[in-house]
Amino acid sequence: MGQLQTEVAAGDVGLDPDRLQRIEDHFAKYVADGRLPGWLVLIARHGKIGYLRTHGMRDVEAGLPVESDTIFRIYSMTKPVTSVAAMMLYEQGLLQLTDPVADYLPEFAQPRVYVNGPAEAPQTRPAAEPIRIWHLLTHTAGLTYGFHRIHPVDQMYRQRGFEAGYPEGTDLAGACAAWAELPLLFDPGSSWNYSVATDVLGRVVEVISGSTLDEFFRENVFEPLDMRDTGFAVPESELERLAALYSADREGRAVRNTRLNRVSSHQPRVLSGGGGLVSSARDYHRFTQMLLGGGALEGTRLLGSRTVGFMTRNHLPGGADLADIAMGSFSETSNAGKGFGLGFSVNETPQAAKVLASQGQYAWGGMASTAFWVDPAEELTVLFLTQLMPSSAHPIRTQLQPLVYQALVD
């Protein structure tokens, strides 16, 4: 497969080449001192790639460099893909955002909310509100992740085998059934907590469509957008292109993650709509260009432009900021001034976070320090790909953002 390339001179799309050099200079230091194995940065403006740089190694031990066609585990950057899939069904009239999830997954028919007590003997009460589709899209369902380690319900998830993976032999349907048996952190719609909600949403997509999630993605998203490298596993013939996965040690240096490196080399039992995909810069760039294009790319339309606009507004109750409504789960960047839409964080008041950005910018990232954002005001998309866990190990996103915006000079 051919290497991805820049499509236009940086200056032709309002990017100063000398100022762009600051991006490479800054993140080259991350590789030089061992904080990152390697990375890729892609900046596109007005629909054209004006900046593309790779640095360091996709596999340090094998001496293989990051290249423009390297495949990365994108983890939670899967969530926007699942959200788009659900909204495609919404546009077809096959679901409503206010539908109870139990209409499709009956195991969620009687949710209960944690009140107090230890994980081994929690006290609960009936939820005041059903879990609805929009709660899944906005992470306001009351679900959680076992790796948070801040609430007794998080511990209950871990006790059931849901921490950095899934119990042996579990599939997506089985995972959803297990989560439905555990209490919620809060009444649906009353707070925000980053969670397995998008995995549950993926299961809803399966039930409504009658397809497995990988089939639905392939037929309705990946093939229409010509995303050739994106899926739940890397074909054996392409495994050399897959970047190795690293974890940060106590000093913040990248150390090969032997256990999780095997993941993505074979089709998983749990098709995680919340974090299961691998992709390349070319493919995810095409996905972000579809979003920037109001749901369409090169004559292929996945969503209506009004739908994309609706998804990228703040849907939190009362128009709240994440900083005000979130329960305290991890975040790689400041949540001040940010809301949450249907699958994306939404930057409503950039000055609140004290990080250079545009109002209306929407974004998300992945557990291995990958990140993207779309800025409709500047007709800008940005993609950062690397493979270091956790994503909170270094302030990559808050450093990258001003480095990109300071290079805009038109």
From TrEMBL:
Among Pfam families, the record links this protein to: Beta-lactamase
Residues in Beta-lactamase-related domain copies: 24-398
Q: What is this protein called?
A: CubicO group peptidase, beta-lactamase class C family
